[in-house]
Amino acid sequence: MQKAPGARGTRGIVASGRAERTIPRVIDPGERAELEASRDLYGVISEQGSGRRLEIAGGVCGTIDALPNVLMANRVLGLGVERRPETQELDEIDAFFRAAGTRYYVCVSPQAHGLEELLEDRGFERGYAWAVFRRGVEPYEAATELRVEEVAPEQAADFGAVVSSASEFPPELAETVTAVVGRAGWHCWVSYDGDRPAGAAAMFVHDRAAWFGFAGTLPEHRRKGSQGSLFAARVQRARELGVEVLGTETGENLEGRPSNSYRNIVRVGFEERYVRPNYASPA
Asked: Domains in the chain and their CATH numbers?
């Protein structure tokens, strides 16, 4: 597995025949937490031999073998935030995904100045975008008869099974999801109805920010307060860890498209901060 490169600054701006001092960009803490969670997750997938990861130009590229041509699973995050990517780096990214036999998304952060134009010049087209949310760590109260536990490694299989099933992943991905339990930065929970796993959710912490993801409830246990209680548990843990900002994302809220996830995120106090475009590689 490749090691993540050190942070690099933006290139100097040429003015009056000389290069100005390079000033590194400050990356939004919520974006950074999401990026680091994805970097670690694709690292797990690469270690298991069930996908690939490439570190390039401050971003991370990842593929998942079990989800070929699911563009949101095979994607590039963080590209162009630290600096503008070079043409040969874009070529290298293309070759990486061609070798995996899949098309892909490039997630374009609002801090990635000029990246959209570079992609459009290469024939990329806008796909379904993500709505990105932020929230503080104000406590959240939730009532449920379910038992909520932050899972230890010996309960990891319950976490992986619920996330995989609730997300309708292929069964082989349950092992991959299971593997994040106990890794540095990851905190995972399962809600139980008696001894039966009902729901699951995760939080990845980086510095003073946390990314919320992997939330799901099995169909037979919905409307029992699982996700509300899992959210409350994550907020409380984030407070204990000194986290200051929470981040998550879901599909853009568009007329004619289901928006249950969007409504649930807003209901627990998240606010939409921006819509992040996803550019699909040429067919």
From this structure: 22-134 (no CATH), 137-243 (3.40.630.30)
